[in-house]
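User: I'm writing a short report section on ligand binding and want a predicted complex to refer to. Could you take this sequence and 2-acetamido-2-deoxy-beta-D-glucopyranose and write out the structure as tokens? A short remark afterwards would be nice.
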Amino acid sequence: MKLVGLWAIGFLASLLQTLSDRFAVTSEESESVATSLLQTELQRLRSPKFATRADVCTDTVPVTGSARGLPAIGYIACCSPEDVKPANVRPGVARYLAAGGRRVVTAPCYGNEHAVGQGLRDSGVPREHIWVTTALDPPDEALQNPRHWAAGQVDASLHRLNVSYVDDMYLHWGLENEYKTKISLANVTKEQYVELGEQYLELYRGLIDAQRAGKVRHIGVGVHTQKEIEYLMNATGVKPDIMHGWITPFMPEKQLSFAKWAMNQGMTLSAWGPYNWDSLDEPAELESHRSITSELAKKYGATASQIVARWYLDKGIAMCTSMLEPSYVKDDLHCLRSSLSAEDTALLESVKWDCQKTDFFQPLPGCSED
Ligand SMILES: *[C@@H]1O[C@H](CO)[C@@H](O)[C@H](O)[C@H]1NC(C)=O
Ligand SMILES: *[C@@H]1O[C@H](CO)[C@@H](O)[C@H](O)[C@H]1NC(C)=O
Ligand SMILES: *[C@@H]1O[C@H](CO)[C@@H](O)[C@H](O)[C@H]1NC(C)=O
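Assistant: Sure. The structure tokens for the complex follow:
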């Protein structure tokens, strides 16, 4: 039975690959053929034979003002060229949702909001059961009317996703991170920096407008420093409901403290990049991380990625990762039911990166602030 199942999943993967390629064809006719083939496969996925629903992770993390909570194990349509490709994202999202996943994360700069929206509809899962996240991508240049511009961006995202509201939308990054990482901003004067900072505030106000208009249920921030978040909160009196960022068990203590600060303010944490360490580690770190996660995996009767996923659940942090590969959906969505012990959590966190490294790749602010 198991072998058949595996074979069928392999077959499904290759079929979906074919479908993916077909989605790339612009002809409407072949697109509708591909869509109906995908529908048939999704029906199979939903059938009791495929669905091992009992151990699908339905955990959620509380969000201020939401009865529902943020699904703990999300699918982010990012970040490799394959991960963001609309032709891959459409069936990827549908497959993840059909398998029981309930949270999809995109952003205008990924160029796949339209495909995400198609995947939502293909899955047949009712809209109200899905948590949809997208972002407002702040531009580097000065805008005439940033607040108005933000309103247009919100509408454009809703249009591309073909939904009447998103569950959360966040200011994708703060100015300090842009300033540190973008060569184009290397020479801005102090005055220009302050002006751009005010522009970010206007964009945040635009998100608040969208929330009041019912187009965005919750607003958030991503890659902002504590000072920047305080600035937004102090100026508007509105706290972001969700803080997005790169958070892993291997972050320096300073960054984890920053994440704790946000939690203490009442923000829900949404982490991306749970498995990035696999490619970012130095050889010695990689060896340690691999040996620790596989030791724990053996102990808990889980996979190494389920051990890392469990860390987020234990901390009350939602996470999202690309689940383009059917095997990732299977692995990541089926989480470990028991918590890691305090000792094992400490072991998992024991090999840390230094601040330099995390600042360089993609900072969760915290290191640079003293
Ligand atoms: C948008 O969604 C509706 C169903 O909610 C569907 O009928 C329509 O075809 C979709 N539009 C596009 C452009 O995909
Ligand atoms: C910034 O200024 C330096 C020194 O004047 C110059 O070499 C560099 O090209 C400038 N960078 C940009 C992005 O304008
Ligand atoms: C925001 O307000 C708090 C409380 O008044 C203050 O401690 C903090 O320094 C302010 N932060 C910023 C960045 O304005």
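A remark for your report: Confidence is low (pLDDT under 50) at residues 1-30. Residues 179 and 186 are 7 Å apart (CA to CA).
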